[in-house]
Design goal:
- The chain has 106 residues and is mainly β.
- Helices cover 0% and strands 50% of the residues.
- It contains no helices and eight strands.
- Strands 5-4-3-6-7-8 form a six-stranded antiparallel β-sheet, with no helix packed on it. It has a two-stranded antiparallel ribbon with strand order 1-2.
- Bound molecules: zinc ion.
- Zinc ion is lined by residues 12, 14-15, 17, 69, 71, 73.
Length: 106
């Protein structure tokens, strides 16, 4: 699964739909704290937890952007430092069953 765009619009990696929403942004530093911006009005600093969506083989900071498409698909686009380069990864998550609070939009 790859991160793709069409005419500079982000496409859902599952169905290719262009109508997507930001849900959260995380900056994860292994063995340090995580900065997590969730929904429209919450930012928190949390302790690192070696579980969850973190890509376990990374050797540096990982930045994750969480999305949902209007067909219900839910995924993370991750970028992480590994041996001098920055790599990317798509992490597919279970579909959301409830209404979600996306990052701020007009
Ligand atoms: Zn989709």
């Amino acid at each position: 699964m790859e991160f793709t765009t069409k005419n500079n619009e982000v496409l859902c990696p599952v169905c290719g739909f262009e109508y997507n929403h930001f849900l959260s942004v995380k900056v994860i530093a292994p063995h340090h704290n995580t900065i997590n911006i969730v929904g429209s009005n919450e930012a928190k600093l949390t302790k690192y937890e070696p579980t969850g969506t973190f890509t376990s083989n990374v050797r540096g900071t990982e930045i994750q952007i969480e999305y949902s498409c209007e067909n219900g698909h839910h995924w993370i686009f991750a970028q992480f430092f590994y041996k001098g380069t920055i790599e990317t990864k798509i992490i597919q998550l279970p579909e959301l069953e409830e209404e979600y609070d996306s990052l701020w939009r007009d």
